[in-house]
Design goal:
single chain, binds ligand B1H, ten-stranded mixed sheet, 3 domains, Rossmann fold, six-stranded parallel sheet, 840 residues, globular, alpha/beta
């Protein structure tokens, strides 16, 4: 009998590597050739680059698989507590390169690929990213999955496998055009379908009471329709650990047409129709960055993935041999905004109707299992569902919500006797006119913890939209400021800066970003500053080359790269940025010899297809660019670029190249922002308002190293309370007036005065996001930026200090806080047989 030590010794001495797990470049090269042949069915002479991408992806997937299997096995055997992240959106970005980084095999795979005469970058570029989200909220879910795995926290991310993700954006004649995102067209090597784990989800119909064997009153739900949920699993690797978590996304399918014939005898076409209707459920992501009010299909999507996920969790729990009563001790369920909040009613239904628990017991389990993250303050963004729609789709859940509400209000009544207003404000049902279900209230009542995503946001929640809940249960509220993963947002996207930093301070920062502190003293080192500048310059050149190749625009890499990249929204104020561009333009036109530092304004972002004003803002940016970029008087001092199709892949070229990060939302409107962190981490300075996480970033990097402007959130409230009149600012500020008048005159629209009229009117008549009130402060601040950039040495020092002090904004820190304050979970290490370990 050989001991494990002996086996290890033998394997090591012979350097035997399994073709499915080995990590040397020779083994990888063999495995890639093998996959090209046996998975893609190609030989090198006819293989496309995409075939090679698939061969490499399968090779990497093999290496992930036994880590993944061991992870699942360990969690099953050890009865660990698992975090279940419920999110309607995930934006993981391309998987291949991230897995190479996390597994520590980038160099080996590069060598393997080069030995076959290929180039790794062009293979990586083949991957179609899963655009299963709109923006910050979906990307946050992906960063959190990365950190959970890296910190070895048992976790499953549940969501929806949209067949079409967020649309691809093209710009035609300066306008956004939406193109269907057919991300699955060429296959997806990262997912494994598990049809054997399909679950049934019911919709519509009615409920009826009955008496069970014990003589207890029960309710059963007779649905009108049943849809199957098929799980598709994607492994999510941690950085240099064996832990590999699961992202489990659900696809809707009709139950077997065979079963259908039992209901519709001989109705073949009816069965086909039913199939189409069912499969529409997970067909497409709603491309809105704020909730979609009253769309039945959206509610169906939410309920569908939540029901699938909760049924799945209960099954896992019982399979582990645990009694249903301990569910909340083994699972904690995080609601990523209210999109999955129906889960509170669904878990109650499963526990009470299906597992026959008593209400109170079921409610205790539910409240302890759930926690809710709020992501927005915009009042129009709070999800509510018309009661009629809700009741016709989910009749049982409506009853359950009534019951939850009744018991909740009974409790509230005792506390606030004789205060009907309070009751009406807290109720899960919005009365008056047509009744609606308030999903945020359901989430609050059904959760043991409620958190905002930045300090200001949490404070504003407590004094604003969720004030009544805060008064009731202050202990439930916590702030957990968002974070981003330094693996993707630094190591992967900025190898040059990664190398420079690692050379100086080692590589511990990759999993302990606070170690960036060690860069502080280097900010004073002129030689280091010079190297830093060289790196930034090279990275800017990369972006300039890309823009040259794709848009035929020549950029000056020594100009200020001033970048605003995020969804297009009035509250994010891309048009304030445009007012600054026009102001600079006017100054140069008036005084052609004016010494202004050259600037390149870069924009990226998608507008919701139905959001006309946002689409008009894109047209304004491209139209201003058209004029400014070609005006000989400007002598190339100003360039305006709109980079089409801002997504994870494209963003990765953008963040590293920024000198200046635009975070200019109206104070009190941006819950957190996460792009602000990615820019800063890559050495950009921020120009920003006191909004969302900007405030904490400014505190961390210190006020001198941050360009602050604008009214505070309190100022904005006061301004509006006093009756804000934007025209006053317009009438008293000649530069502002000139900029707006130039837009209105048709100067940027070939004389067409009507084109931008809606935008100009909105600013002059209402200006709900107070651009005019913040204009002068923004311009003054931008002038300081221009000044500061002239002194490259000081600028660089400031940039280094920004990076040195940004450590807090790692998603690892955020996840540690969730673990400690909300989830009560601990890391669990995953061990492989030693000879299978990475020897990287
Ligand atoms: C955020 C959303 C959002 N907040 C509804 N809310 C959606 C709401 O499709 N829908 O119905 C989609 C998205 N997204 C963002 O979350 C905030 O605006 C950011 O400030 C924040 O950084 C991000 C992550 O917390």
């Amino acid at each position: 009998e050989l001991s494990p030590e002996h086996i290890t010794e033998i394997y090591d001495s012979f350097h035997i590597e399994d073709d499915r797990t080995g990590l040397s470049s020779e083994t990888l090269q063999r495995a890639i050739a093998d996959n090209l042949y046996y998975i893609q069915g190609k030989f090198p002479e006819i293989a496309t680059l995409y075939d090679y991408y698939m061969a490499v992806a399968y090779t990497v997937r093999d290496r992930l698989l036994h880590r993944w299997i061991n992870t699942v096995k360990t969690y099953r055997e050890q009865d660990v507590k698992v975090v279940c992240y419920l999110s309607a959106e995930y934006l993981p970005g391309p998987h291949l390169e991230n897995n190479l980084v996390n597994l520590g095999i980038y160099d080996q795979v590069q060598q393997a690929v080069e030995s076959s005469g290929l180039d790794l970058r062009s293979i990586l570029a083949q991957e179609e990213e899963p655009g299963l989200g709109n923006g910050g909220l979906g990307r946050l879910a992906a960063c959190y999955m990365d950190s959970l795995a890296t910190l070895e926290i048992p976790a499953i991310g549940y969501g929806i496998r949209y067949e079409y993700g967020i649309f691809d954006q093209e710009i035609r004649e300066g306008w956004q055009v939406e193109i269907t995102d057919k991300w699955l067209r060429l296959g997806n090597p990262w997912e494994i379908p598990r049809p054997e784990n399909a679950v049934e989800v019911k919709f519509g119909g009615y409920t009826e009471p009955y008496t069970d064997d014990q003589g207890d009153y029960r309710v059963r739900w007779i649905p009108h329709q049943v849809v199957n949920g098929i799980p598709y699993d994607t492994p999510i690797s941690g950085y240099r650990v064996n832990t590999t978590s699961t992202m489990r996304l659900w696809k809707a399918e009709a139950p077997e047409s065979f079963d259908f014939q039992a209901f519709n005898v001989g109705d073949y076409y009816g069965a086909v129709d039913a199939k189409i209707i069912s499969e529409n459920l997970t067909k497409v992501l709603y491309p809105n960055d704020e909730p979609i009010q009253g769309k039945q299909l959206r509610l169906e999507q939410q309920y569908f993935f939540v029901s699938c996920s909760l049924q799945n969790l209960l099954k896992i729990h019982l399979l582990r041999g645990d009694p249903i009563e301990t569910f909340h001790e083994k699972f904690v369920i995080q609601l990523n905004d209210t999109h999955p909040a129906i889960g509170v009613a669904e878990l109650m239904r499963l526990l009470v109707d299906e597992y026959l628990l008593h209400w109170q017991k079921a409610w205790d389990i539910t409240q302890q299992a759930f926690a809710y993250t709020n992501h927005t303050l915009l009042p129009e963004a709070l999800e509510t569902w018309p009661l009629n729609l809700f009741g016709s789709l989910l009749p049982r859940h409506l009853e359950i919500i009534y019951e939850i509400n009744q018991r909740f209000l009974d409790q509230v009544r005792l506390k606030y006797l004789g205060n009907p207003d309070k009751l009406a404000r807290l109720s899960l049902i919005e009365e008056g006119g047509s009744k609606r279900i308030r999903m945020a209230h359901l989430a609050c009542v059904g959760s043991h913890a409620i958190n905002g995503v930045a300090a200001l946001h949490t404070e504003l929640l407590k004094e604003g939209v969720l004030k009544d809940f805060y008064d009731l249960w202050p202990h439930k509220f916590t702030n957990i400021t968002n974070g981003v993963t330094p693996r993707r947002w630094m190591v992967l996207i900025n190898p040059r800066l990664t190398q420079l930093i690692t050379r100086e301070i080692g590589e511990t920062w990759i999993t302990q970003l606070e170690d960036f502190k060690r860069l502080e003293s280097l900010a004073e080192d002129p030689a280091f500053r010079q190297e830093w500048r060289r790196v930034k310059r090279a990275v800017k050149q990369d972006l300039a080359d890309y823009i040259q190749a794709h848009q035929g625009l020549t950029l000056n890499p020594d100009s200020i790269f001033d970048i605003q990249a995020k969804r297009i929204h009035e509250y994010k104020r891309q048009h304030l940025n445009v007012l600054h561009i026009i102001t600079l333009y006017n100054r140069i036109k008036h005084n052609p010899r004016l010494a202004v530092p050259p600037r390149t304004f870069i924009f990226g972002g998608k507008a919701a297809p139905g959001y006309q004003m946002a689409k008009l803002i894109i047209k304004l940016i491209t139209s201003v660019g058209e004029v400014v970029n070609h005006d000989p008087d400007i002598c190339d001092l100003i360039k305006v670029v709109f980079l089409p199709d801002f997504n994870v892949t494209n963003s990765q070229r953008i963040y590293p190249a920024a000198d200046l990060s635009e975070q200019i939302s109206t104070a009190g409107k941006e819950a957190s922002g996460t792009g602000n962190m990615k820019f800063s981490m890559n050495g950009a300075l921020t120009i920003g308002t006191l909004d969302g996480a900007n405030i904490e970033i400014r505190e961390a990097v210190e006020a001198d190293n941050f360009f602050l402007f604008g009214h505070t959130s309190e100022d904005i409230v006061d301004l509006k309370a006093q009756g804000y009149v934007p025209k006053t600012f317009y009438n008293t500020n000649p530069a502002l007036k000139e900029a707006i008048d130039l837009i209105a005159s048709g100067y940027f629209s070939h004389g067409n005065r009507a084109l931008f009229q809606p935008l100009v009117d909105q600013l002059l008549q209402a200006d709900p996001y107070c651009l005019l009130a913040d204009y002068q402060s923004y311009i003054d601040c931008q002038d300081q930026v221009g000044q500061a950039f002239q002194d490259q040495d000081t600028w660089t020092k400031t940039a280094i200090l920004n990076v040195a002090r940004i450590g807090r904004f790692s998603s690892d820190r955020a996840i540690r806080e969730y673990c400690r304050e909300i989830w009560w979970v601990n890391p669990v290490s995953i061990h492989l047989e030693e000879y299978q370990q990475a020897k990287a």
